[in-house]
Amino acid sequence: MLDVELIRREPEKVKAGISKKNADPALVDKFLELDKTWRERTKNVDELRAKLNQLSRERKIDEAKLVKEKLKGVESELPEMESKRLSALKALPNLPLPDVPEGKNETFNKTLREVGKKPVFDFPPRDYIEIGQKLDLIDTERAAKVSGSRFGYLKHEAPLLEFALIQLVLNFVTNEKNIQKIIKENKLSIAPKPFIPVVPPVLIKPESMEAMGYMERGGEEIYYLEKDKLYLVGTSEQSVGPMHMNESFNKAALPHRHISFSTCFRREAGSYGKDTKGILRVHQFDKLEMFITCAPETSGDEHKLLLGIEEKLMQALELPYRVLSIAAGDLGDPAAAKYDIEVWLPGQKEGAGEYRETHSASNTTDYQARRLNVKYKPEGKFVHMLNGTAFAIGRILIAIIENYQTKKGTIKVPKALRKYVGLKEIVR
């Protein structure tokens, strides 16, 4: 959530910032009104408590009883006031950073660069669904029979490719030399600490999910188990971020970098009619996610590090892609800035091809840290938190299948994965 003092001190700045993210600036006025009432009532409670203590010391029993009754009535109103005030505060999205492109939606996203050569085929390229079914790698029909729509079985070599992708990422981001190289290439002023692997829980408490800032807008995407009062994560960021809730880091120990692997779950509530076939947009998928906790002054460079890692991984697979800087109106509530990577999929649009998103990298500044109450010592300030996709497995499998397809209907295995898969080509 936002800094309350900033909202009180510079309300017009906050209104301008949230307006860029398509949020109603009246939300700021609503919070300030509730905040003013809450502060007045809190001050009143403090004054009554002080008066009660004084009367008790002076043994003015009758007067003390009257003040005590009045205090009880005022105190009873505070919890509801505090709840409404906090809800109004949480309804305010993070402010976009100054260099974020302005614009109301994804059409204003700025393409920063295109990397890699798009494959040229001497045959009409097929989409991944056709190839996956022919080679018996993807089975959505039987998955629908078992689980319903937007599910799929990965079979034969497809799971081998998944495990190979996992190993590629882990080997890369846990190697300090690789991190150092990206830092040097991008002229970043941050430590070359490698990432710590973690397999997190995929079921988390409501307070953990709420603290990550996805409930106010986008909550319809999240699966909730009413009986157990637990949420299923839509990305492992949602369980890695709260891992250090109500804790303080020593500044000298920062940055703290994790690479997590988990299965993720999403309702895809806003995507009816979109990508209903195949495994591009599904309810369950596996993902490797990077998460960084750092000092505020280094979060800009840490953001560039995440993007640098994502690009190196795509380059290792020799997949053509483009990098986007996301417009303010297309940012989620927690993000202050975000990069996306979109891979070229030659089999889409009946062989015409198109770019589709595979990665994002977000700097949430101190927005999530305030909700989680994660600080650093000795300053006692809030840390900054960032997250970035290493690989969303399903989408990378799609990219490999379409970009490495052959005329005879087989799939060449990317060179970077062959030592893990044990194959040069997938045939049936």
UniProtKB/TrEMBL annotation:
<feature type="binding site">
    <location>
        <position position="266"/>
    </location>
    <ligand>
        <name>L-serine</name>
    </ligand>
</feature>
<dbReference type="InterPro" id="IPR045864">
    <property type="entry name" value="aa-tRNA-synth_II/BPL/LPL"/>
</dbReference>
<keyword id="KW-0436">Ligase</keyword>
<dbReference type="GO" id="GO:0016260">
    <property type="term" value="P:selenocysteine biosynthetic process"/>
</dbReference>
<feature type="binding site">
    <location>
        <begin position="282"/>
        <end position="285"/>
    </location>
    <ligand>
        <name>ATP</name>
    </ligand>
</feature>
<feature type="domain" description="Aminoacyl-transfer RNA synthetases class-II family profile">
    <location>
        <begin position="176"/>
        <end position="414"/>
    </location>
</feature>
<comment type="function">
    <text>Catalyzes the attachment of serine to tRNA(Ser). Is also able to aminoacylate tRNA(Sec) with serine, to form the misacylated tRNA L-seryl-tRNA(Sec), which will be further converted into selenocysteinyl-tRNA(Sec).</text>
</comment>
<dbReference type="InterPro" id="IPR015866">
    <property type="entry name" value="Ser-tRNA-synth_1_N"/>
</dbReference>
<keyword id="KW-0067">ATP-binding</keyword>
<dbReference type="InterPro" id="IPR033729">
    <property type="entry name" value="SerRS_core"/>
</dbReference>
<feature type="binding site">
    <location>
        <position position="387"/>
    </location>
    <ligand>
        <name>L-serine</name>
    </ligand>
</feature>
<keyword id="KW-0175">Coiled coil</keyword>
<dbReference type="GO" id="GO:0005524">
    <property type="term" value="F:ATP binding"/>
</dbReference>
<dbReference type="InterPro" id="IPR002314">
    <property type="entry name" value="aa-tRNA-synt_IIb"/>
</dbReference>
<feature type="binding site">
    <location>
        <begin position="357"/>
        <end position="360"/>
    </location>
    <ligand>
        <name>ATP</name>
    </ligand>
</feature>
<dbReference type="GO" id="GO:0004828">
    <property type="term" value="F:serine-tRNA ligase activity"/>
</dbReference>
<dbReference type="Pfam" id="PF02403">
    <property type="entry name" value="Seryl_tRNA_N"/>
</dbReference>
<feature type="binding site">
    <location>
        <position position="282"/>
    </location>
    <ligand>
        <name>ATP</name>
    </ligand>
</feature>
<comment type="subunit">
    <text>Homodimer. The tRNA molecule binds across the dimer.</text>
</comment>
<keyword id="KW-0963">Cytoplasm</keyword>
<feature type="coiled-coil region">
    <location>
        <begin position="38"/>
        <end position="84"/>
    </location>
</feature>
<feature type="site" description="Important for serine binding">
    <location>
        <position position="389"/>
    </location>
</feature>
<comment type="pathway">
    <text>Aminoacyl-tRNA biosynthesis; selenocysteinyl-tRNA(Sec) biosynthesis; L-seryl-tRNA(Sec) from L-serine and tRNA(Sec): step 1/1.</text>
</comment>
<dbReference type="InterPro" id="IPR010978">
    <property type="entry name" value="tRNA-bd_arm"/>
</dbReference>
<feature type="binding site">
    <location>
        <begin position="235"/>
        <end position="237"/>
    </location>
    <ligand>
        <name>L-serine</name>
    </ligand>
</feature>
<comment type="similarity">
    <text>Belongs to the class-II aminoacyl-tRNA synthetase family. Type-1 seryl-tRNA synthetase subfamily.</text>
</comment>
<feature type="binding site">
    <location>
        <begin position="266"/>
        <end position="268"/>
    </location>
    <ligand>
        <name>ATP</name>
    </ligand>
</feature>
<protein>
    <recommendedName>
        <fullName>Serine--tRNA ligase</fullName>
        <ecNumber>6.1.1.11</ecNumber>
    </recommendedName>
</protein>
<keyword id="KW-0547">Nucleotide-binding</keyword>
<dbReference type="GO" id="GO:0006434">
    <property type="term" value="P:seryl-tRNA aminoacylation"/>
</dbReference>
<dbReference type="InterPro" id="IPR042103">
    <property type="entry name" value="SerRS_1_N_sf"/>
</dbReference>
<dbReference type="GO" id="GO:0005737">
    <property type="term" value="C:cytoplasm"/>
</dbReference>
<feature type="binding site">
    <location>
        <position position="235"/>
    </location>
    <ligand>
        <name>L-serine</name>
    </ligand>
</feature>
<dbReference type="Pfam" id="PF00587">
    <property type="entry name" value="tRNA-synt_2b"/>
</dbReference>
<feature type="binding site">
    <location>
        <position position="289"/>
    </location>
    <ligand>
        <name>L-serine</name>
    </ligand>
</feature>
<dbReference type="InterPro" id="IPR006195">
    <property type="entry name" value="aa-tRNA-synth_II"/>
</dbReference>
<keyword id="KW-0648">Protein biosynthesis</keyword>
<feature type="binding site">
    <location>
        <position position="389"/>
    </location>
    <ligand>
        <name>L-serine</name>
    </ligand>
</feature>
<dbReference type="InterPro" id="IPR002317">
    <property type="entry name" value="Ser-tRNA-ligase_type_1"/>
</dbReference>
<keyword id="KW-0030">Aminoacyl-tRNA synthetase</keyword>
